[in-house]
Amino acid sequence: QSALTQPASVSGSPGQSITISCTGTSSDVGSYNLVSWYQQHPGKAPKLMIYEGSKRPSGVSNRFSGSKSGNTASLTISGLQAEDEADYYCCSYATGNTFVFGPGTKVTVL
Amino acid sequence: QVQLQESGPGLVKPSETLSLTCTVSGGSVRSGAYYWSWIRQPPGKGLEWIGYIYHSGSTNYNLSLKSRVSISIDTSKNQFSLKLRSVTAADTAVYYCARDRDTGGYFDFWGQGNLVTVSS
């Protein structure tokens, strides 16, 4: 159960779009359309932002979108806002009915 | 609205057993639509899935922790619990309980987290 790969940090100016990648293997991201993304502000519990690769839970802004190609999933934040500054984690269902997380990406709004 | 709340000691001595309980309100652990997971986060680091339990008592664990972890469920109290044996400083973390949709593989509700420090 190796961790997924994410960039350590991504930054953008207000109003811009940014994309965070999440690379796994054929044992997780590549085999299942079950990637989820979580937003975590300092000292808070993670919050579900995207599930099943591209679906948004009720209440999550449509500025957040997800996609997948092969072994890599992506989270795009459009119209970047100050409140989007946080850590973002991807998670994939994996072989053996397990879960694997990425190391997290710190998003900075310049 | 479903709420989860972790409870347990904030300090555990090395080589002892870490024990935490998650109390669920606004929903039932008996529901067949969900699994109930434990996830941890060492200070300043990322998230690590520990394992889950189903209402039937069926469990699955992270291979890296499997030899030391056990998760149980008490449907009468609407709770599930975590035990991690032979802890070391590396087990110091915020421990979260979370609900996992059985068909979607995602965690839609989380507890607020319980910081457990392993130290003598």
Can you walk through the features of this model?
The complex is a heterodimer of chains A (110) and B (120). With 110 residues, chain A is an all-beta fold. In chain A, 0% of the residues lie in helices and 45% in strands. In chain A, strand 3 and strand 4 form a beta hairpin. Chain A is globular. In chain B, strands 2, 4, 5, 6, 9, 10 and 11 form a seven-stranded mixed sheet that branches. Chain B has a four-stranded antiparallel sheet with strand order 1-3-8-7, with no helix packed on it. Chain B has no helices and eleven strands. With 120 residues, chain B is mainly β. The chains are: A mainly beta (110), B mainly beta (120).
What's the SSE blueprint?
The complex is a heterodimer of chains A (110) and B (120).
Chain A: E1 9-12, E2 18-23, E3 35-40, E4 47-50, E5 64-69, E6 72-77, E7 86-94, E8 98-101, E9 105-109
Parallel strand pairs in A: 1-9
Antiparallel strand pairs in A: 2-6, 3-4, 3-7, 5-6, 7-8, 7-9
Chain B: E1 3-7, E2 11-12, E3 18-25, E4 34-41, E5 48-53, E6 59-61, E7 69-74, E8 79-84, E9 93-101, E10 107-110, E11 114-118
Parallel strand pairs in B: 2-11
Antiparallel strand pairs in B: 1-3, 3-8, 4-5, 4-9, 5-6, 7-8, 9-10, 9-11
Features:
heterodimer; A: 110 residues; 6-stranded mixed beta sheet; 0% helix; B: 120 residues; mainly beta; 7-stranded mixed beta sheet; 4-stranded antiparallel beta sheet
| Class by SSE composition of chain B | mainly beta
If helices are DSSP runs of H or I spanning 4 or more residues, what is the number of helices of chain A?
Answer: 0
Q: How far apart lie the N and C ends of chain A?
A: 35 Å
Poorly predicted regions of chain A are: none
The radius of gyration over CA of chain B amounts to 13 Å
Number of DSSP strands of chain A?
Answer: 9
Largest interface: A-B, 26 and 21 residues
- Integer-rounded radius of gyration of chain A: 13 Å
Secondary-structure element order of chain A, as H and E? Answer: EEEEEEEEE
The average pLDDT of chain A is 95
Envelope shape of chain A:
globular
Most strands sheet of chain A: 6 strands, mixed
Amount of helix of chain B: under 10%
